Amino acid sequence: MFGSFIKKSRAKSPWIMHFDCGSCNGCDIEVLACLTPLYDVERFGIINVGNPKHADVLLVTGTVNHRNKKVLKNIYDQMPEPKAVIAIGACGNTGGIFREAYNVVGGVDKVIPVDVYVPGCPAKPEAIIDGVVAGLAKFAQKVEEA
Amino acid sequence: METLIFVIIGLVAAPLLGGLIAGLDRRLTAWFQSRQGPPIMQAFYDVGKLFGKEKMVVNQWQILCAWVYLIAAAVSVALFFAQGDLLLVFFVQAIGAVFLVMGAMSVKSPFSQVGAQRELIQILAYEPILILVFVGFYMVTGSFSIHAVWAQDTPLLAKMPLLYLALGYALTIKLRKSPFDFSTSHHGHQELVKGVLTEYSGPYLGLIEIAHWYETILVLSLCALFWHTNVAWMALLLVATYMLEILVDNTMARMTWRWMLKRVWLLGMGIAVVNLIWLYAG
């Protein structure tokens, strides 16, 4: 009974950690817009935490460059399992228009495994919420298989 | 036998009630901000999820400290429901509070360290208030035992109104609500990441959350003792007090520890002492 409650709780309490990996701030504003009364992601039990050790879902915006790839990896490693990663916006997905720049590594998936890609420049808050919900489904599946 | 039944009821009901209050609190706060807010059971989902997370600790001390905090909080609630000695309840609760700080200090993270220092200052602010309230109980009933309260035939609120107000400071600090939420906040974000709780994670954070529910119930039960003659009035007093807490939380900014010490020591302890003088003279 306790085990099934824990499983059920996972999908109902995703705590989110948001990392700006060199974004232009467009996607970050949209991520924060999800918390406002208009979108109110707390309806789904989502809390925006500032601590990777408390987080279940990592939202990454922006391109990864050689400077911050270590930071991204470090934050990812500090999150306890089970966890999900969601790349947000064109830059987070592929590197966007900065893809060919000499200092850019590329999308988030060059450094850490990504579960869900949310497209857009910037990504819409609705799309971000959809992405988190899709991420939770994947993460429930991962837990089931493990 | 009857005492044992009370203790078991206290140990089982306190976390359930505490979690429910935490859920209702978030719901009401959301309503104040014209949001819908999470389900009322959200606090239980959060803790359920935390218990399913990977066990990640910086050192073994954290495990011990989280457990001692939980056990001390549970034992203090059990002692309270066994109608025990208020001073004993106080000391057991204080042990738990100190262990929480020790666990946070056992790691190098500056967020955790500063949070622990602030938590110590908060303990320094609310513990004298609790002691003064217990002294008030002693002056009215002639005993530190909770049994003696039930022998009174008038509500204690009539004799200790200022002590009740002072207890409000202790309640706000214990609930980690604004303006006193600088060691850690019950909201997601705080300037010290999560302050004293930063380095506790997964199941150990879950244990601390349950201990927090126990402590919430402990302080609310203490408030309930102020109107022991009538259950309806007792409930009304508790609901009114908690609503006021939520209102204060939503309308106040987070203040500094200096501001807190000034308010709680001068104003809080001041009105508590005035009430004690009144009881002594009266």
From TrEMBL, chain A:
E.C. no: 1.-.-.-
Enzyme type, top EC level: oxidoreductase
Alphabetized UniProt keyword annotations: 4Fe-4S, Iron, Iron-sulfur, Metal-binding, NAD, Oxidoreductase
Annotated InterPro entries: Complex_I_20kDa-like, NADH_UbQ_OxRdtase-like_20kDa, NADH_UQ_OxRdtase_20Kd_su
Pfam families per record: Oxidored_q6
Needed cofactors: [4Fe-4S] cluster
Listed GO MF terms: oxidoreductase activity
Family, as annotated: Belongs to the complex I 20 kDa subunit family.
Identification of the protein by name: NADH-quinone oxidoreductase subunit B family protein
